[in-house]
Amino acid sequence: MSETSQPMIDEVDLILTNARLRDELEPYRDDSIDDPTTRRMPLQKENEYLASILAWERAPALAIAQWFDPPLQIPAPESLDDDALAVELQQTIQQLHSQNIKLTYTDHLSDRQLYRVIYQDILPACEKKVDAPGKCLEWRCVDDNDTYLTYYASPVERRRHQEEHQAELPKAKRPNFRRRLPD
Fold first, then answer.
1. SS in 3 state form for 122-182?
2. Cα–Cα dist 33/35, whole Å
3. Contact 148, 105 (CB under 8 A)
4. Does the CA dihedral 112-117-119-120 come out positive or negative?
5. Long-range own/partner contacts, residues 66-74 (CB < 8 A, 24 or more apart)
6. Beta bridge pairs of residue 139
7. How far apart are CA 123 and CA 34, in angstroms?
8. Which helix (H) or strand (E) segment is 27 a member of?
9. 0.90 exceeded by the pTM?
């Protein structure tokens, strides 16, 4: 085989993979599959995009606690003193990270408040579990715009929000509970 025939074989493989992915996606067909921007992607990128859609469509929706084997159960927040809760929180954050669950915007919450969010909101939440390299579930621990605008929004975002909504902005503050979370 000559050196020039290898790229042609790779291109044929990419075309065949693309056709297979599109066939497998047919039952799930919607605008995201037919998005015209995919036609401007290199074939390898388009195949990665289609494979990620297929993985999403086939992924089971489970309570996040069920993503673990055995299912993740943590003690109720009120059953722990502050020291035990801090240890349990760190272990739980590491366990969530092991399943590609990334917590963001947590620095306005005390350890007890964050632990309660995990216990009451995150673990029972039903989400698609997609096992794809480099993909994670990002859980934003802010409930409202005011909290985001107060602690996390950049000056540009704050100004844009004020202009768009003609609303009074909450005073910008630094979060009280700076923590290092796994990336």
1. HCCCEEECCCCCCCCEEEECCCCHHHHHHHCCCHHHHHHHHHHHCCCCCCCCCCCCCCCCC
2. 6
3. yes
4. positive
5. 67/99, 67/101, 67/129, 68/95, 68/99, 72/123, 74/115, 74/118, 74/119, 74/123
6. 103
7. 34
8. none
9. no
Residue 78 CB-half CA count within 13 A: 1
Which of 146, 114, 3, 131 has its CA nearest to residue 60?
A: 131
Rounded-to-integer distance, Cα 69 and Cα 139, Å: 21
Locate 114 and state its tokens.
Answer: 């964050």
**Hey, what are 149's tokens?**
């605008």
Q: Are 150 and 172 in contact (CB under 8 A)?
A: yes
Token pair for 144: 């409202």
* Residue 12, beta-bridge partner list: none
Query: pLDDT (tens digit, 0 to 9) for every residue of the chain, 183 residues total?
Result: 455 556 666 888 988 888 888 888 788 777 655 666 666 788 888 888 888 788 778 888 999 999 999 999 999 999 999 999 999 999 999 999 999 999 999 999 999 999 999 999 999 999 988 877 777 899 999 989 999 999 999 999 999 999 999 989 999 999 999 999 998
Q: What is the C-alpha to C-alpha distance for residues 112 and 77, in angstroms, rounded to an integer?
A: 7
Q: What angle do CA 71, 72, 76 make, to 5 degrees?
A: 130
Q: How many residues does the chain have?
A: 183
